[in-house]
Amino acid sequence: MLNIPGTLSHYKNPLADSALQYGDANKELLSVAKAQPVIASISQWPGYQETALHGFSDLAKAINVAQVYYKDEGQRFGLKSFKALGGAYAVARQLQGLIAASGHQEPSIEQLLAGEFREQLRDIVVSCATDGNHGRSVAWGAQMFGCGCVIYIHRDVSEGRKQAMQAFAAEVIRIDGNYDESVRLADSEAKRLQRIIVSDTSYAGYMEIPKDVTLGYTAMLAEIVSQLQGEIPSHIFIQGGVGGVASAVCGYFWDLWGERRPRLIVVEPEQANCLQLSAKAGKPVAVTGELQTLMAGLACGEVSLLAWQILADGVDDFMTLSEQSVAPTMKLLAQGFGQDAKVEAGESAVPGLAAAILAAESSEYREKLGLTEQSRVLVIGTEGATDPVLYQQLISS
């Protein structure tokens, strides 16, 4: 027993069926074919390299499964999060489109990076609301490709995460409200001031740009497939939030592996479980209130509508994780278990792993999730220490 404290709640999705085909409507949003040019583009960015896929063999033995794979996004482009892929890619796509619309041939990524259109892009401003990581990606992309950036954050976003965005020359505006309120303000201000919203969540009247954000995440998934060397995991535990990365994981592997795809378990905080509640209701529903959770990147009360299209019948299980599991799991990774690699993982990186550990150590959840000693579990560590001060506090507690 690893003695990770905490509790889980579970809802088995009645709409999920491994025999379901990945339909044309979903392929219009995200597919392996659509991902190929995205991956080719991102691989040309300065500093691109694959992030590690760790095999935690000792941890796997301790929880009586065959293997635990951990995709470590904590060093992605130095931004310490998988979201470096999505926001910056969507910024690039918007700028390429604007230049093409002005009568030029659509520029290549190389031309944008070389600054060939900086004069035309200087007065363009991209904007979004964020818990931290997506906004950091948008700010980095704006600086890299040559336009302005304004980011909205809510009252609970740490000062460290605010400063990380300001380091990329973004103007950061803090509001006295929650994440969903910051999304609405960013949207209304963008309309008034003619800014381009580059959001990682979709909502009524705003559907196109989030497709590019989600497609950006597929670069990480293509790396995983290559690193697995032909193996297909039996289970994937993935963090929830608005559903963006979960829908990318669900759609990409569903399209790629079909009926052989892994069992997909989405994990959310107890106080911000909009995906689980939406599954229970059979339609997107919102969680209101304070959305208080240590898992800052998952403090989201409203489902991304595009993500829900894929998740509604693509996710097998929706789970919530209690708060007390977070810091001990971060500490476990920081110390390394047995001979397994030591990993720097932020608060929003560990829910999938924590849920996998708790489930594997419970006879009830092993049965509910079909976990056995042959199971090969994939989790995605979506961020590193994006707030270094808070990280040190949590792993030292």
Which key terms come to mind for this protein?
14% strand; Rossmann fold; alpha/beta; seven-stranded mixed β-sheet; four-stranded parallel β-sheet; 2 domains; 397 residues
General description of the model:
The protein is α/β, with parallel strands linked by helices. The chain is 44% helix and 14% strand. The protein folds into two domains: 256 residues, 3-Layer(aba) Sandwich (Rossmann fold), CATH 3.40.50; 128 residues, Rossmann fold, CATH 3.40.50.1100. The chain is built from 17 helices and eleven strands. The strands form two sheets. A seven-stranded mixed beta sheet has the order 1-10-9-8-11-3-2, with helices on both faces. Strands 6-5-4-7 form a four-stranded parallel beta sheet, sandwiched between helices. Helix 4 crosses helix 10. The model has no long low-confidence stretch (mean pLDDT 95).
Offer a quick outline of the entry:
The protein is α/β, with parallel strands linked by helices. It has helices at 24-29, 32-42, 57-62, 83-101, 109-113, 118-121, 133-145, 159-166, 179-193, 209-228, 244-257, 274-281, 305-314, 326-335, 351-360, 363-369, 388-396, and strands at 8-12, 53-55, 67-72, 125-130, 148-153, 171-174, 196-197, 235-239, 263-269, 317-321, 376-381. Helix 7 links the parallel strand 4 (125-130) and strand 5 (148-153).
